[in-house]
Amino acid sequence: MMIMKKVKIITTLPGLLTLVFLISSCQSLFNDNNIKSNPNAVTDVDIPTLLSGTLVGTSMLHEDTDVRIASLWASELSGLSRQHQGYAEYIVQASTFDWSTLYPVASQARLIQQKADALGDKWSKGVGEVIEALIMAKATDLYGDVPYSQAFQPVTYPTPVYDKQADVYTALIAVLTDAATNLSAPTGLPLAAGDFIYGGDVSKWKAAANTLKARLYLHLGDYPNAITAALAGISSTGGDALIPHGTSIGVDDNQNYDFFVVTRKGDTGFDGSFFPALLSSRIGSTNTKTNESAFYKFFINVGGLTGAGALDPNTTSGGAFATNAPTPLLTYYETQLILAESYARLATPDLTSSLAALNKVRAGLSAGYVNGQTLPAGGLYLPYVAADFGPAGLANPKAYPDQQSAMLYEIISQRFTLLVMQYEAFNDLRRLAKAAPVIQLGITPVQGSKLPQRFIYPQNEINANPNTPNPAPDQFTKLPIYN
Fold first, then answer.
1. What is the C-alpha separation between 92 and 32, in angstroms, rounded?
2. Residues 248-254: what's their mean pLDDT?
3. Per-residue pLDDT, 20
């Protein structure tokens, strides 16, 4: 039986203070008296140090293999060799997946909150709640029903129950509501020393909490609440939650760069995926207000890594996957596109507000900004007007008979181009099959007749926790919220 043990590991990281993790291991592993009496063992850390390490873990969880698999399954990326070729063909098993980082990092976020409660520190608690929600949202978005209500309590609940996905969503929304309240407190302890995302700016953390809440409401198809949350969300590109990176390989570099260039060069690329096809359809088309050539150059380096003609990830300086390129967690663009889609999907669609939100994204792209970087030259994002989405409008490539459908297709297309190498694109693939009216991009299975719908529960969890669903659902079984 597996029991969570609180073992704090401190690793020096330039610019990131320290890395603090909980490690899951067999109970018997730490019964050796020499280990128990280790004079160098860390007994406690302060909140800024704990926060810094927890944010490092959160960053890794948004640049890991799980994110790549989600990107493969959303047809943003193609698997070209070795394991990732199999992943791209939906060939996975329980041993493919792992929670050994996910739950420990979420547990560290919970520990931040406990320490903050002991100090009466509302700000730190609010940040801890946002981080916990970020991580547990990833867990339920990829796996469906997951342990949550009894998680992080290894002594009381060594084998936690699996909560229904809808209940996890309800709980996470409540956590984010509480986070926003805590982050509105007039005073709190300074966070700047441990916060490399926002430098201790609690107003930005509060906005990020609301953007994440809007994302969850969008998944649930609760468009009025998604609008309310997004309106209180990230209000400018200056509020983007971005993971910073440096140029030291294996220390602070972007993990996408590390994968694409250092450890698995040629295993993946954009060749044959839907992503370059969508961008190409938005370059030199009859839509004279849009040209995605800047995006194409930003994300794709033709032949730059693996040979002439290959659609390689752009890992060059200034590219989306450069060694020091920031990785987005939550952004202003996502917030505005949540608003745009939600307004368009209301029972009585508000296409005027939808168009206004979409045009805010286009204004930012026209200025050349994306994820903390500057787009190459050549892009075009002129503001749309309602007539552009009419039956013969320039922004209606599918010739939809109504403006609502045409506008939704444009919003969904823009989301896809902005969510590359983020697992949210895989969420879109699944939720759009249910959201009414049904508007999809036309992504087709790489193999077989079905698109994957979820990750498989990890083998070590199946072995250790008798509460794991049995029989375990396979990768083609729909998640409850999208069924």
1. 37
2. 92
3. 39
- Closest by alpha carbon to 429, among 233, 219, 249, 228? 219
pLDDT tens digits, one per residue of 306-353: 888 999 999 999 999 999 999 999 999 999 999 999 999 999 999 999
pLDDT (tens digit, 9 = 90+) per residue, 457-469?
999 999 999 999 9
409 close to 400: Cβ distance less than 8 angstroms: yes
Residue 8 Rama label (left phi>0; alpha psi -120 to 50; beta): beta
How far is it, in rounded angstroms, from Cα 1 to Cα 125?
32
Is pLDDT at 207 greater than 50 in this prediction? yes
Buried b (16+ CB within 10 A) or exposed e, 291-306: bbbbbbbbbbbeebbb
Q: Are 240 and 371 in contact (CB under 8 A)?
A: yes
Structure tokens at 91: 């060939």
Q: Nearest Cα to 226, choosing from 240, 247, 244, 212?
A: 212
Backbone phi and psi for residue 453, each to the nearest 5 degrees, phi listed first: -120, -15
DSSP 248: -
In 3-state terms the chain splits into helix, strand, coil percentages (rounded to 5) of: 45, 10, 45
Cα–Cα distance, 385 to 369 (Å, whole number): 22
Q: Answer left, alpha or beta for residue 249, where phi above 0 means left and psi between -120 and 50 means alpha.
A: beta
* 107-158 pLDDT, tens digit each: 999 999 999 999 999 999 999 999 999 999 999 999 999 999 999 999 999 9
Euclidean distance between CA atoms 453 and 361, whole angstroms = 29
The total number of structural domains in the chain stands at: 1
Token pair 């002439």: residue = 308
Asked whether residue 197 is assigned to any structural domain, the reply reads no
Has residue 451 been placed in a domain? no
How far is 237 from 245, CA to CA, in rounded Å?
Answer: 18
Lowest mean pLDDT among 172-176, 192-196, 471-475: 192-196
**CB burial of residue 418 (10 Å; 0-12, 13-18, 19+):** buried
pLDDT tens track for 385-400: 999 999 999 999 999 9
Q: List alpha helices for 192-314, DSSP H.
A: 202-220, 223-231, 255-257, 274-281, 293-299
Residue 222 lies in a domain: no
Report the C-alpha gap between 160 and 466 in whole angstroms: 9
Under DSSP, the state recorded for 308 is: T
Lowest mean pLDDT among 21-25, 156-160, 252-256, 445-449: 21-25
The closest alpha carbon to 353, from 425, 398, 399, 411, belongs to 411
Look up the domain containing 369 and give its range. 252-258+269-421
CB 68 within 8 A of CB 210: no
Question: Residue holding tokens 């087709």?
Answer: 444
